[in-house]
């Protein structure tokens, strides 16, 4: 059921519209210079990367060679390039090299492709499920057109299922999906066309077995007529063919970063339902629980901060609980911590205050430590004036002594600016009182 032309490709209309670079490449003749010389196809599994490579190769005067980066090496690449040179010189034929999972190629292996790609000796069609910006070397990336394939939506998967059921190349009308069965097949396919067809094939086998078991021992003409009719595929058949939905998650790829980013932003956005959803996705995908715990602790300090100082204690406690009891039970304290953080008041004032202080230090705005604050315990320190004039805070009312703590160039600098959220709502007045006491003024009523 692999599409034979761009018109049969579904779900990638942003790449296949008339006049698109991809269509120019597919429709160009072997001697044409229109369109990109090479392309890198980036997208999740089962969205048509290999299909597009085959479609590109069908143009007149092209030969198709397929390599997998899992098994191929530099020697294999050089052999393909040499054969491509011979084919062009002897027959005027362009070679399309489809390299699957190019992100698995080392830098040296990718370097071996550069001359042939630059001279258009081969039309490289490389496929990857990982972000090419991190997995493909810059010279190769700059010589290729990057095409991003989108996950297939429900309508595209349903269209593929219906086409496979009716097309002579597929099931040729022998089976018919019920609406409920189609809906479930679409749902459990996880936006993966390949998986949807696998589920359909397995479900049809189950439906055939069910029908065979239900047949009467006496089969006559009526049985032949029944056999000629399309056999219905029920939702139970699909359920048995695919026990659970496929979760798009790669612990070392984009989904790892995208999901955890959505997780943190959902906590920051005070949406506990969304935060629990992304937590569930990470847990089901087998994400390292230590990684999840670290992100929860960071979120407590970065996004809740002094608006609810207890949030950090809750996050650290959940981290310790997961370390001690392990998974899957560790998901329970994790869920508690995530709900607490998502519903807590938010403030990043202390986080920004430190960043501003670091920026001042790096910019050279530091100054000398005031003499009265310097260490006076080692021999000779007092002779240097260290500690002279220091006022012990506990000897003063409210345990706040009137003296300067910041270096002279920064004496009036203010870093921490509390928000009006949660516990910080009372912090501004407290800070004003502390400043009055440190400058020797009486506190306000």
**Large-scale geometry:** elongated
Q: How many individual domains?
A: 4
CATH architecture of the largest domain: 3-Layer(aba) Sandwich
Low-pLDDT segments, ≥5 res:
30-36, 223-227
Give the strand order, joined by hyphens, for the main sheet. 2-3-4-1-5
Assign the CATH class of the largest domain: Alpha Beta
Quaternary state reads single chain
Beta-strand segment tally: 7
Compute the CA-based radius of gyration: 33 Å
Helix content: 40-55%
What's the pLDDT, averaged over the residues? Answer: 84
* SS content category: alpha/beta
> CATH fold name of the largest domain, please?
Rossmann fold
Percentage of residues in strands: 5-15%
How many angstroms does the end-to-end distance come to?
Answer: 82 Å
């Amino acid at each position: 059921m692999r599409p034979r032309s761009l018109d049969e490709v579904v779900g990638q209309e942003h790449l296949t519209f008339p006049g698109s670079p991809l269509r120019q490449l597919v429709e160009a003749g072997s001697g044409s210079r229109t369109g990109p010389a090479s392309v890198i196809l980036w997208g999740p599994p089962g969205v048509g990367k290999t299909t597009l490579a085959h479609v590109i190769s069908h143009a007149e005067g092209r030969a198709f060679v397929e390599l997998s980066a899992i098994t191929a090496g530099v020697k294999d690449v050089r052999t393909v390039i040499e054969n491509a040179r011979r084919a062009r010189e002897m027959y005027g034929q362009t070679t399309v090299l489809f390299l699957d999972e190019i992100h698995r190629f080392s830098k040296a292996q990718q370097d071996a492709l550069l001359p042939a790609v630059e001279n258009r000796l081969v039309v490289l069609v490389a496929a990857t499920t990982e972000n090419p910006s991190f997995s493909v070397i810059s010279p190769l990336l700059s010589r290729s057109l990057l095409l991003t394939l989108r996950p297939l939506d429900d309508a595209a998967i349903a269209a593929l299922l219906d086409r496979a059921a009716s097309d002579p190349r597929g099931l040729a009308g022998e089976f018919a999906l019920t609406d409920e069965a189609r809906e479930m097949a679409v749902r459990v396919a996880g936006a993966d066309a390949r998986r949807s067809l696998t589920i359909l094939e397995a479900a049809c086998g189950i439906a055939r077995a069910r029908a065979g078991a239900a047949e009467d021992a006496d089969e006559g003409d009526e049985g032949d007529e029944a056999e000629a009719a399309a056999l219905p595929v029920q939702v139970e058949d699909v359920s048995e063919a695919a026990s659970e939905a496929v979760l798009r998650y790669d612990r070392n790829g984009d989904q790892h970063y995208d999901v955890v980013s959505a997780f943190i932003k959902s906590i920051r956005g005070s949406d506990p339902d969304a935060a629990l959803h992304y937590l569930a996705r990470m847990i089901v995908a087998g994400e390292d629980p230590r990684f999840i715990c670290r992100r929860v602790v960071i979120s407590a300090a970065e996004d809740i901060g002094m608006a609810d100082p207890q949030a950090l204690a809750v996050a650290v406690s959940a981290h310790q609980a997961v370390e001690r009891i392990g998974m899957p039970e560790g998901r329970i304290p994790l869920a508690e911590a995530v709900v607490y953080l998502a519903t807590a008041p938010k403030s990043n004032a202390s986080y920004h205050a430190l960043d501003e202080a670091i920026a001042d230090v790096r910019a050279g705005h530091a100054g000398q430590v005031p003499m009265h604050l310097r260490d006076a315990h080692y021999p000779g320190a007092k002779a240097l004036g260290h500690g002279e004039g220091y006022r012990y805070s506990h000897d003063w009312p409210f345990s706040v002594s009137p003296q300067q703590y910041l270096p002279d160039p920064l004496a009036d600098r203010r870093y921490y600016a509390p928000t009006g959220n949660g516990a910080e709502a009372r912090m501004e007045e407290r800070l004003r009182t502390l400043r009055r006491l440190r400058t020797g003024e009486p506190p306000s009523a």
